[in-house]
Design a protein that fits this description.
alpha+beta, Metallo-beta-lactamase, Chain A, 16 strands, binds zinc ion, 6-stranded mixed sheet, single chain
């Protein structure tokens, strides 16, 4: 994997032919992925709003037109630059219909149920004005099995109601957003307080088993390569369940 750009705050890597990773070190090793699709580019997730210039410059250096911005979920570290990038490039933003109201600013994720701590933190983030990403003009709503260029949409809710993953048949790859992370080479299901429905997220991991993935591309942390990558995801979820059961029985 070649490093194409490096600064204090970010790195651009060529993950493999036709696939690039932009990683922003702050606040938490957040990824955007650029996928070449028949001579055009699809951006999968769009960082924080202050990452707009870096993403735009990276696209310019690859020198292919950005046509699509596919958002895994409506959190500000994944959709922050989507609106401005769409305005600058003319690319179409896509998101699951259940997360669209949080992208357009019509609703706030702080309105949703979750654990008490989760609800409190969402409300606090809402009041500080950091929960919703800057609004996106007319994102196109998608649902299960829709196609965004060559990517197939898989509805994998739990982290947010309209959380989606994207399947690339060409790369045998799953873009999983914040459903899993791979920090320090540890593939883990996301059971943080910003996951609204944990049981639903575990069900979503069952859904990944329909795909013979060899590559997991998470929202945070490195790519995970494995001959049984979908099973690795499920194992990460089951390990957490076992840990919780042990804690309850102790
Ligand atoms: Zn998130
Ligand atoms: Zn995130």
């Amino acid at each position: 994997m070649a490093i194409l750009q490096r600064s204090f705050g970010h790195r651009v890597e060529k993950e493999r032919e036709g696939l690039w990773r932009i990683v922003f070190h702050f606040p938490t090793s957040t990824n955007c992925w650029l996928l070449e699709d028949k001579g055009e580019l699809t951006l999968i997730d769009a960082g924080c709003f202050w990452n707009t210039g870096t993403i735009f410059d990276t696209i310019s250096s690859i020198d292919k037109p950005l046509r699509r911005i596919a958002i895994t979920h409506a959190h500000p570290d994944h959709a922050g630059a989507a609106g401005e990038l769409a305005r600058r490039t003319g690319a179409q933003v896509f998101a699951h219909q259940l997360d669209v109201p949080y992208l357009t600013g019509k609703r706030s994720l702080a309105e949703l149920e979750g654990s008490t701590l989760s609800h409190y933190l969402h409300r606090a983030a809402h009041h500080l004005g950091v929960l919703n990403p800057p609004s996106v003009d007319e994102p196109l709503p998608v649902e299960e099995a829709d196609e965004i260029g060559s990517l197939k949409v898989i509805h994998t809710p739990g982290h947010t109601p309209g959380g989606v993953s994207f399947w690339s048949e060409k790369h045998k790859a799953l873009f999983v957003g914040d459903n899993a992370s791979n920090r320090f080479s540890l593939l883990s299901i996301n059971m943080s307080v910003f996951t609204l429905a944990r049981a639903q997220l575990i069900e979503s991991f069952e859904k990944y088993q329909e795909y013979d993935a060899r590559l997991i591309l998470p929202g945070h942390g490195r790519a995970h390569y494995s001959q049984q990558a979908s099973a690795d995801l499920l194992n990460s979820a089951q390990n957490v369940q076992r840990h919780h059961r042990r804690k309850i029985s102790n």
